[in-house]
Design a protein that fits this description.
The complex is a heterodimer.
Chain A: H1 14-28, E1 32-36, H2 52-56, E2 61-63, H3 68-80, E3 84-89, H4 99-112, E4 122-127, H5 142-146, E5 152-154, H6 159-171, E6 176-181, E7 203-206, E8 211-215, H7 219-229, E9 236-240, E10 243-245, H8 249-259, E11 262-269, H9 274-286, E12 295-299, H10 308-314, H11 318-330
Parallel strand pairs in A: 1-2, 1-3, 3-4, 4-6, 5-6, 8-9, 8-11, 11-12
Antiparallel strand pairs in A: 5-10, 7-9
Chain B: H1 37-62, H2 77-85, E1 92-94, H3 100-105, H4 110-117, H5 151-165, E2 171-176, H6 183-195, E3 199-205, E4 208-209, E5 212-213, H7 223-228, E6 233-238, H8 242-257, E7 263-268, H9 286-293, H10 297-305, H11 311-334
Parallel strand pairs in B: 1-2, 2-3, 3-7, 6-7
Antiparallel strand pairs in B: 4-5
Classes of the chains: A alpha/beta, B alpha/beta.
């Protein structure tokens, strides 16, 4: 909650909001312990944890070997034994080398033990294609994680949510995958003075009457850019889901019931992507409110290419979003 | 201590460290010293409870009361009993798909465990876990595991939490020699060294990784040498001698409590049963099994009790264990299954 007495002229950058959330959570609870590659004196690959090692010491900000499966397994054990680990996975792509502790251990242990243990872990990671990271450093894998019962998946799109969802993730007594977007790290977003929203509550970023665009993460901003550039005065409602799990179906349903048209936009690959689930939810809950087919617009079904022109062709962008909105409106 | 150093095996132990498969088993009585009678009887009683539990599991599996996979630890009772005897309340352990013995030795209730295997609401995990996911957090049992090697880094994390708590607790990761090929073993053990946390890696070398003799799976240095190469104390112990295990573990645990970091112990033993109940073990020779039967950890404890004139007390412990487990089975079989309406409980906290 922003304190008016210390309100700043400029909102903090997304990365500063993350750092502030980690700092405040560590101040509030001595059990909050960070672990990950390069997060200590190095401050993290992108600087999210900068200053925390100096402030809280090596006992609470633990550098680790490059051994993600070991580190995340240790986070699971530490969580069951009373800590509240925040384990950093430098790139979301790297979850593929440590899925067992996430999928088979953290996500299932509370259930498998009949509620006998708590597993309060945050798996902090980031995605963000579009900067020639190549196919192994550019994926959007939130849908893969959202498929696993027992995992929450949060995808903050601005500084306010970077702070609030990080705090909420750390406060949760169950595992949460917090997927930041590295292309937002340096941005200052309006809305820092907003009241915090809980996980599972979507936010209507822009009101509109003709079509609903459902999105999250960096695509919120791409969508707003697309709408700003569109000619013809279509009234577009933009919903930032903020968290895929829990999913706020009701906010989407209510919007689609009013607009009658819907487009789901995500940076993840379209085939078997999270958009499929959202479209299915709309079909199940709002089919007869629709004036046309619900469409998805995501990345092409391809590994993310390196060369800039190829990468731009593969990823969704504001021009493509505008075209997709137009197509939904014209159907 | 009753352990061998990493330089070589103990005189009484013909089974050389880390030469698994068809080694001759050790056969000597447990090394009991004067004044050890009551302690030895205590350990024997725990081993007898594990043996009775596992034998009942085998019978109930064949009768169809156990619904899924189940793996028993007959022949490995001394490893679980000796190792857990070195632990105290507040210490943690992780175990494997073959974890009934560790749970019993750490204090889990046989009736609740049996109910869990039967899938009942009164089970250790309310029937949600089953044999491979037995856990009881208030006893520090952070779970059996269905994934080979997965418990190793979990124990490292529990040791980290224990160190943070500052109460001198330790964590023990039980795993088989089959797990040492997994990434989780190397990553977990490496992390423990980097962090210098109080964790003991207790590797029960029962000579078989599921169906495959472990001897054929490595060609390099022994398990102990492998572990030592990470920069930690590493020893090999006759895992069928309950006192040898307890003495070795006590020394390693004391060092870990004192802040000396992680350690590794190979507990050389033998899996008398198959990989799972129902496994006909066509991959190993009958005479090998018979030779290891002569090294049975309970028989070796009895051989030490006999000259002390305590066989009648051992018999009484056997009878008490049988009665306890029979009652546990009866009570667990009478317990209700979970209400299907509760299927979605405890997915999130």
């Amino acid at each position: 909650m922003p304190d008016p007495s210390t309100a700043e002229a400029a909102p903090p950058r997304y990365i500063e909001a993350l750092n502030r959330a980690l700092t405040d959570a560590m101040e509030a609870d001595g059990a909050v312990t960070l672990m990950g590659v390069d997060i200590g004196a190095g401050g993290g690959a992108y600087g999210v944890t900068r200053g925390l090692y100096e402030r809280f010491g090596a006992g609470r900000v633990l550098d680790t070997p490059i051994a993600e499966a070991g580190v995340l397994g240790a986070a699971v054990g530490a969580a069951m034994a009373g800590l509240r680990p925040v384990a950093e996975i430098m790139y979301v792509d790297f979850i593929t080398v440590c899925l067992d502790p996430i999928v088979n251990q953290a996500a299932k242990l509370r259930y498998m033990t009949g509620g006998g243990v708590r597993v309060p872990i945050v798996f902090r990671t980031q995605s963000g294609a579009g900067r020639s990271g190549g196919a192994q450093h550019s994926q959007s894998l939130e849908g893969l994680l959202a498929h696993i019962p027992g995992l929450d998946v949060y995808c903050p799109a601005d500084g306010r949510d970077a702070y609030d969802l990080t705090r909420a993730a750390i406060d949760a007594d169950h595992p949460v995958c917090l997927i930041e977007n590295r292309r937002l790290y340096g941005k200052r977003h309006p809305g820092w003075e907003r009241d915090p929203l809980p996980p599972g509550k979507a936010r209507v970023v822009r009101d509109g009457d003709d079509v609903t665009v459902v999105t999250w993460g960096r695509m919120v901003h791409e969508t707003l850019d697309a709408v700003a550039a569109m000619e013809g005065g279509a009234s577009v409602e933009v919903i930032d889901l903020r968290t895929l799990v829990p999913l706020d179906v009701e906010t989407v349903r209510a919007s689609v019931a009013r607009t009658g048209r819907c487009l789901v936009v995500h940076e993840a690959v379209e085939q078997f992507g999270p958009g499929g689930e959202i479209v299915a939810q709309i079909a199940e809950h709002a089919l007869f409110d629709l004036d046309g087919p619900v469409r998805r617009y995501g990345a092409l079904a391809s590994p993310v290419p390196y060369s800039p022109g190829l990468e731009a062709a593969m990823l969704p962008g504001s021009d493509g979003i505008a075209a997709a909105i137009t197509a939904v409106l014209e159907h | 201590m009753g352990a061998d150093s990493s330089e070589g095996p103990a005189v009484a132990d013909a089974g050389a460290p880390s030469r698994p498969g068809v080694v001759d088993p050790p056969g000597a009585p447990v090394h009991a010293r004067p004044g050890d009678l009551e302690r030895l009887l205590g350990r024997y009683g725990t081993m007898a409870r594990i043996r009775a539990f596992e034998e009942a599991v085998g019978r109930r599996f064949r009768d169809g009361d156990i619904h899924g996979f189940v793996h028993t630890s007959i022949g490995q009772e001394a490893a679980a009993t000796g190792a857990c005897a070195a632990l105290r309340d507040g210490d943690y352990l992780t175990t494997t798909h073959r974890g009934h013995g560790h749970c019993l030795a750490k204090g889990a209730d046989a009736t609740a465990m049996m109910a869990e295997l039967f899938g009942r609401e009164t089970g250790t995990c309310r029937g949600r876990g089953g044999s491979m996911h037995l856990a009881q957090a208030d006893l520090g049992i952070l779970g059996a595991n269905g994934i080979v090697g997965a418990g190793i880094p979990i124990a490292v994390g529990a040791a980290l939490a224990a160190r943070s708590a500052g109460a001198g607790a330790v964590a023990v990761a039980f795993f088989g020699e089959g797990a040492v090929h997994s990434g989780a073993f190397h990553e977990g053990i490496g992390l423990s060294v980097a962090w210098q946390v109080p964790v003991i890696f207790a590797c029960e070398n029962n000579h078989y990784a599921e169906f495959t003799p472990s001897e054929g799976s490595w060609n390099g240095p022994s398990l102990v040498d492998r572990a030592a190469s990470y920069g930690m104390t590493a020893i090999s112990v006759d895992g069928n001698d309950v006192f040898a295990v307890e003495d070795a573990m006590s020394e390693l645990v004391a060092a870990a409590r004192a802040g000396e970091g992680p350690a590794f112990v190979e507990l050389r033993t033998y899996r008398m049963g198959g990989h799972y109940e129902g496994d006909a073990t066509p991959y190993r020779a009958d005479d090998e099994v018979e030779r290891w039967r002569s090294a049975d950890p309970l028989a070796r404890a009895r051989a030490a009790l006999e000259p002390l004139g305590a066989l009648d007390r051992a018999d009484a412990l056997d009878a008490a264990a049988a009665a306890e487990i029979e009652a546990a089975v009866d009570e667990a079989l009478a317990a209700p299954y979970p209400d299907p309406a509760s299927v979605l409980e405890n997915i999130r906290a």
